[in-house]
Design a protein that fits this description.
Blueprint lengths: L1 E6 L6 H10 L4 E3 H9 L6 H7 L4 E2 L2 E2 L1 H8 L3 H28 L4 E5 L14 E6 L2 H9 L6 H10 L3 H7 L2 E4 L4 H15 L16
Parallel strand pairs: 1-5, 1-6, 2-5, 6-7
Antiparallel strand pairs: 3-4
This protein binds dephospho coenzyme A and adenosine-5'-triphosphate.
Dephospho coenzyme A binds next to helix 2, helix 4, helix 5 and helix 7.
Length: 209
């Protein structure tokens, strides 16, 4: 089984690319979705988060906005949060790989925002980096409700620079030229890695529409 990593800095188009890979019938493990489950009511990370960041748990679930405000401007606090969350997410990703290896899947995807920062690339045979010019990244992120320039700068300061990720990744997918173009770039990569299986039932779908 081959493992394809998918990563990219904030707003570069990772979730969009992950959805496209799902449409190509690839199993995708979404680290962000795993964090959402861990933080929801009854989630495995809630007690540890409550102990470390008491103001960030409201009615039994983690309030992500509050937690984000507490950690993105405080690197030491972010490290404490990561020490709680990353081992749990890693265990889920490993279980996902075991399950699909047993099912003899030829190619699976690990979608991890902090792939390089957490050493997740060591689990992968190749890594796809989604990337776009910085001005486009800013435009996209600043459109999100509640996002400010300060928060964007704080998040970016905590992430490996895009240029360093570009240096490391085996495949670059440029997301600034429309979704149809992104889809075609991804399809080419998947065909290279999984040459014997038809990649997509949706060929010809107009993703720019
Ligand atoms: C701080 C939290 C609660 C903020 O949640 P919120 O919903 O407001 O933002 P979201 O998760 O969508 O993240 C916004 C952007 O910040 C980036 N980001 C998230 N965590 C980190 C981190 N530890 N270091 C650098 N960038 C990060 C994301 O990749 C994304 O680009 C959340 O990001 C979190 O729990 N982060 C720590 C866990 C983690 O490292 N997750 C990322 C990969 S598993
Ligand atoms: N390939 C693309 N072509 C055009 N627009 C795109 C593309 N990918 C993403 N976008 C737009 O950019 C914005 C951010 O995309 P997305 O949510 O996929 O980013 P992300 O990298 O997952 O962000 P984050 O790391 O913050 O979770 C969305 O508004 C989306 O429509």
């Amino acid at each position: 089984m081959r493992v394809l990593g998918l990563t990219g800095s904030i707003g570069m188009g990772k979730s969009t690319a992950a959805n496209m890979l799902r449409r190509m019938k690839l199993p995708v493990h979404d680290a962000d979705a795993a964090v959402h489950r861990l933080f929801a009511t009854g989630g495995a990370a809630v007690p540890a988060i409550e102990a470390a960041f008491p103001d960030s748990v409201v009615e039994g679930a983690v309030d992500r906005r509050r937690l984000g405000s507490a950690v993105f401007s405080d690197p030491a606090a972010l490290r404490r949060l990561e020490a709680i969350v990353h081992p749990l997410v890693r265990a889920e990703a490993l279980a996902f790989l075991r399950r699909h290896r047993r099912a003899r899947r030829p190619l699976v995807v690990l979608d991890i925002p902090l792939l390089y920062e957490t050493g997740g690339d060591r689990l992968c045979d190749a890594v796809v980096l989604v990337t776009a010019p910085a001005f486009l990244q800013e435009q996209r992120v600043l459109r999100r409700p509640g996002m400010t320039r300060e928060r964007l700068d704080a998040v970016r300061a905590q992430q490996m620079p895009d240029r360093e990720k570009r240096r490391r990744a085996e495949f670059l997918v440029l997301t600034g030229r429309g979704k149809g173009d992104t889809f075609r770039q991804l399809r080419r990569i998947v065909r290279r890695l999984r040459p014997t299986v038809a990649t997509c039932a949706d060929e010809g779908t107009d993703l720019d529409a």
